[in-house]
Amino acid sequence: MKCPKCDSNLRKVKVKVQDAETKAISYQCPKCDYFEFEPISSKKVIEELRETPLKINLKNIFCKI
Q: Which domain holds residue 47?
């Protein structure tokens, strides 16, 4: 694949998404920092995140008076 901005070759990179086992595939340009995600793999990651229960971590905040 070629970069639409600078016409150099794009690198295929597997991107780890927090709380997802599946990795999304991204195409990144080493020269101009252009990137795009492959639609099929990113949809799989989004579906996987929707299926997992939401985890909320609460931290106690203490204030000095």
A: 11-51
Supply 11's token pair: 């690198």
Cβ–Cβ under 8 Å, residues 23 and 15: yes
Residue 21 lies in a domain: yes
Is residue 45 packed enough to be buried (19+ CB in 10 Å), middle (13-18) or exposed (0-12)? Answer: buried
Residues in Cβ contact with 22 at an 8 Å cutoff, skipping those fewer than 6 apart: 41, 44, 45, 48
Q: Count the domains in the chain.
A: 1
Given pLDDT bands bounded at 50, 70 and 90, which one contains residue 65? Answer: low
pTM: 0.69
